[in-house]
Amino acid sequence: MFKSIKSKFNNDADEKSALMKPEKKPPLGKMFWISVGWVCLNIFLAITANLLPLKDPIAQDYNAISVGPSLHYWLGTDDIGRDILSRIIFGSRISIAVSFGAMLIAFGLGAPTAMLAALRRGRFDNILTTIMYSLLAFPAIIATISVLSFWVPRNLVKVIIVIGIASTPLVYRVIRTASLAVASRDFVTAAKVQGATDRRILIKEILPNIMPILLSFLLIGIASVVAIEGALAFLGLSISPPTPSWGNMINEARTVMSSNPWLVIFPSLALCLFILSLNFIGDRLRNYFDVAEVKI
Amino acid sequence: MPKLWLLSSRYLRGDVGRYLLQRLVTLIGILFVVSIGSFYLIHLLPGDPAVFILGLNYNSVTKAALDIQLGLNKPIYLQYFTWIGHVLHGNLGTSFISHQTVISTISRALPVELELIVLSQIMAFGAAIPLAMRSARKPDSTLDRVLSASSFVLLSIPIFILIVLLVLLVSIKLGIPNTGPSTYVPFMQNPGVNLMSLLLPAITMATGSFVLYFRVLRSDMTGILQEEFITMARSKGISQRRIMWRHAFRPASVSLLGSAGVNIGGLLASGFIIQFLLAIPGLGFTLIAAINTSDYLLVQGIVLVVSAGVIIVNFMFDLIIFFVDPRIARD
């Protein structure tokens, strides 16, 4: 709290030095690029899974039940002889589709309205912000679980819509706070005086300036949706077996955990590394652009 | 120090009174929104909700009983008033699946839930406060770097993976008794076994809280320790211990309490999966069981109770923060 007050006072000085010496920024570091590479690899594999020489993730090989990692089965097979590597890669499709889809909805709804509210202020801002903040008080995970349990029959699109809408108020708050700081700056006033339309100001003036916050929050948001989708799969509210997803793989493997722990460990590792990379990229970007701590 | 005199009528006229009144009005408003949301849930069911709620028990007699209980034959706004009237009298309906009142099922599960949360919060605060204070006093020391890095990694492990891995390691590989799934017994029956069976879930829930509290407190403390009033206290020769706990901790505890309020509310919700996996009969376990048996009235009741609980917990923490730092009433 005190830090934020302090940084407000020092804001002008920082800005000036940042403008004058842009090359002084510390490098992003090796780990950052490794994380970016890992996330890109995951996305690439998820998109091209059908074209890759992978085994069928649902096909059962009764000659190879619960075998350990080998040349033929890189990560081994599960208790009914399905190839784990291919299940993990096909499973990543669900996590990636849900997280990107949900964040597309959340940012699509939340970001433009938040920017407009920050620019216009007045009654529009007041009403919208009151609505969003009261929605924010409603625990999002309970809303998600309860809506999904009542909205039968369940499918992937409904999961994406529900998570997306449940995350909208949070996106709204973060983007509005960031845009408010930009909207009161002189160049926005100058654009207004020149008679620029709201749309032009939003796209040309405000959006580029909140891009770092938007990007890092988007990445961290995607990471949290991956975790939420996993949790929903655990509760049987997301995609149902035999279609693999990281969450339901871990859930199914739970019952044979004592005899074959790899079944739990491989998908868990895939999920954690993906989330860790996204969080790391988001965190580094935030430091790089010197954005104040965003509470999630 | 709870300054209860602030609530006396003299203060209710000033900023403080306006602040408290405003918070109270907001609380009631949000509870109203939540009640509408919970009420509307059963109308998400396709077609006639009665068919889904009654399930296999559907016949003309039970349908008539349900219509009276929920007022299903009336217009929707009257249904809401029928329902909220019952709720305010502590009547959340009677399940047609388990033939028990929803409120009795919930009141059996609630103590388990609360025990779990209290245990996990004791662990989380007990570990986070001393470690964050030590880290903040010597930023960039080995301890600080190790803790910051590991807290970042822990932040990226979802709780459902953490609990599965802990069960794998502790109950299966190490074979420690009474820690695995389905070992829960009520506290009154056998306190030792009860605490052992709640150990892993409590650790899992504590981990997330620990990471949050540690990061919040550490970043605030490092900021505050550079303030001038700390330099002043140092130059007066006040002991390090007293500076840390009396001068720096109190301003730093405001945002710690803020995040604790949000987090404890969230724990009510996120404990679901842990309870489901280890078959601990708290609210989460009951909720998932209710979803799986299509016991929609019970789901609705739990959603209402948990959401209201989260909001009331947040409100209580707002009040505590206000007593710690009454200046927030002026903003």
The gist of it:
The complex is a heterodimer of chains A (296) and B (331). Chain A has 296 residues and is mainly α.
Write the layout of secondary structure elements.
The complex is a heterodimer of chains A (296) and B (331).
Chain A: H1 2-20, H2 30-48, H3 84-120, H4 122-137, H5 140-150, H6 156-183, H7 186-193, H8 198-234, H9 246-253, H10 262-288
Helix pairs in contact in A: 2-3, 2-10, 3-4, 3-6, 3-8, 4-6, 5-6, 6-8, 7-8, 8-9, 8-10, 9-10
Chain B: H1 15-40, H2 49-54, H3 60-70, H4 76-88, H5 102-137, H6 142-155, H7 159-173, H8 191-224, H9 228-235, H10 240-278, H11 283-292, H12 296-324
Helix pairs in contact in B: 1-12, 5-6, 5-8, 5-10, 5-12, 6-8, 7-8, 7-10, 8-10, 9-10, 10-11, 10-12, 11-12
| Second CATH tier, the architecture of chain A | Orthogonal Bundle
Describe the global form of chain B: flat
Poorly predicted runs of 5 or more residues of chain A: 1-23
Helix run count of chain A: 10
Beta-strand residue fraction of chain B: under 5%
Task: Assess the beta-strand content of chain A as a share of residues.
Answer: under 5%
Biggest interface and residues each: A-B, 45 and 58 residues
Oligomer kind = heterodimer
Order of helices and strands of chain A: HHHHHHHHHH
Low-confidence stretches of chain B: none
**Can you say what the CATH homologous superfamily of chain A is?**
MetI-like
Average predicted confidence as pLDDT of chain A: 80
Biggest sheet layout of chain A: none
Helical run tally of chain B: 12
Radius of gyration of chain A: 23 Å
Helix % of chain A is: over 70%
What is the highest CATH level, the class of chain A? Answer: Mainly Alpha
Fraction of helical residues of chain B: over 70%
Give an account of the 3D structure.
The complex is a heterodimer of chains A (296) and B (331). Chain A is mostly helical. Chain A is built from 10 helices and no strands. Chain A has helices at 2-20, 30-48, 84-120, 122-137, 140-150, 156-183, 186-193, 198-234, 246-253, 262-288. Chain A is elongated. The two termini of chain A are 16 Å apart. Chain B is an all-alpha fold and 331 residues long. Chain B contains 12 helices and no strands. In chain B, helix 7 (159-173) packs across helix 10. Chain B is flat, with a radius of gyration of 24 Å. Chain B starts with 14 loop residues before the first helix and ends in a 7-residue tail after the last helix. The mean pLDDT of chain B is 81. At the A-B interface, helix 1, helix 4, helix 5, helix 8 and helix 10 of A face helix 1, helix 6, helix 7, helix 8 and helix 10 of B.
